[in-house]
Amino acid sequence: MTVLGLFRNSSILLFCFLFVGLDTVTGTLDKKVQASLNETKQKGWQWLAMKGKAKSSQYADAQQVESRTARRHLNRFVELGLVKKIGFGPSTEYEII
Q1: What was the pLDDT predicted at 9?
Q2: Which residues of the chain fall short of a pLDDT of 50?
Q3: Which of 8, 55, 67, 77 is the most buried (most CB within 10 A)?
Q4: Domain 29-96 classification at class level
Q5: How far apart are CA 97 and CA 95, in angstroms?
């Protein structure tokens, strides 16, 4: 779920939400990029795209993979231009571009 906007009108707050299905997230990938990702990486991409950004430890926990595997997946997303790497070491975050 992504918050699209917050509007104020006469002290009334109105939230607009866009509900994005996981298939929609994967479907927006270029066909060549999508074909280059195995099923596990596609599921990881779906999770990360819904979250927006995450550390490798969060990705590993969510995807139930080893930390080294999580870093490999995330670095592959960086190589494909899907995410950018912010920081270094244990505090490194991977953010959707």
Answers
A1: 47
A2: 1-27
A3: 77
A4: mainly alpha
A5: 6
Phi-psi domain of 65 (left: phi exceeds 0; alpha: psi -120 through 50; beta: other) = beta
- The full set of domain ranges for the chain reads 29-96
**pLDDT number for residue 66:** 98
Question: What per-residue confidence (pLDDT) applies to 75?
Answer: 97
d(CA 13, CA 23): 31
| C-alpha torsion angle, residues 23, 50, 61, 86 (rounded to 10) | 130
Q: What is the pLDDT, as a whole number, of residue 29? A: 85
CA torsion, points 88, 90, 96, 97, in degrees to nearest 10? 0
Give pLDDT, residue 81.
Answer: 95
For residues 8 and 26, what is the distance between their CA atoms, to the nearest angstrom? 34
Contact 52/66 with Cβ under 8 angstroms?
Answer: no
Q: Which pTM was predicted?
A: 0.72
